[in-house]
Amino acid sequence: MDYYLENTKVFKALGDPKRAMIVDMLSCGELCACMILEKFEMSQSTLSHHMKILCECGIVKAREEGKWTYYTLDDDTISKTKQFFCAITSNKENCICKENSNCCKGCNENE
Amino acid sequence: MDYYLENTKVFKALGDPKRAMIVDMLSCGELCACMILEKFEMSQSTLSHHMKILCECGIVKAREEGKWTYYTLDDDTISKTKQFFCAITSNKENCICKENSNCCKGCNENE
DNA sequence: GCGCCAAATCGAAAAATGTCAATGTGAAAT
DNA sequence: ATTTCACATTGACATTTTTCGATTTGGCGC
Asked: Fewer beta carbons within 10 angstroms: which end of chain B, N or C?
């Protein structure tokens, strides 16, 4: 399903500790790439790659100004992702077990 | 940092659309492996592998009963992960830009 | 124009991941 | 005890991801 694929891209991006740290930094406000690079032991091309992944899933936006690129968090994607996380983890009523597929003991409980 | 590594494991697990779907299913209540397997086009060994990843990051708990294994979501891990997500995305005051590293235009704004 | 700087892109190598068929394990039924 | 069933583990393979050095691109200062 597209619904899952789209939303899990953000989780995939945040699944890397360094990218989560970058997001954490950006939560304080806009930063340029060079500033982020200073805080990590990684090559410039590697950071550029991580930033691309963060931008592609929508959680980070890039703004170019002269020779610099500034990054910020995207509030809209963040709230959508929060909502998705809540949606897939909060209790719902449409349990597939009600279909009684008879594959295990629990399937017949609600007869 | 361990703080990031620990929490991003959950995101990594949820970064796969099929695993996110499984979590969505489990939000309706406990399910046995066979029931989950019915809903996907994947081999039994592949499902077992996905369930292991979901269990290892803590978001899913396994309960064995006879020859069946029942899975449930772990509320504690879910709330911790929500908290982590909020922590790294909500505005904070300790911006590293205040250090004035002079690497770009924005670094000198607050002098 | 020329060279310098910030950042993106390319190409390649190493590591991790997703998937399956085959096999192992432990419980239940006969 | 033997078979069957649910699930885990293993080994193998293809794909994806991570990372780097080298190169390219585009802006800025001289």
From this structure: C
Nucleotides of D under 7 A from a protein CB: 5-11, 17-22, 26-28
- DSSP type of residue B105: G
Amino acid residing at B27:
S
Beginning with the edge strand found earlier in the chain, give each strand of the sheet holding B31-32 in spatial order: B31-32, B68-73, B60-65
| Among the partner residues B5, B15, B25, nearest to A96 by beta-carbon distance | B25
Would you write out chain B's pLDDT as a tens digit for each of its 111 residues?
Answer: 678 999 999 999 999 999 999 999 999 999 999 999 999 999 999 999 999 999 999 999 999 999 999 999 999 999 999 999 999 999 877 665 556 677 888 776 654
> Cβ–Cβ of B104/A4 closer than 8 Å?
no
Domains, chain B, ordered by start: 2-108 (1.10.10.10)
Write the ipTM: 0.90
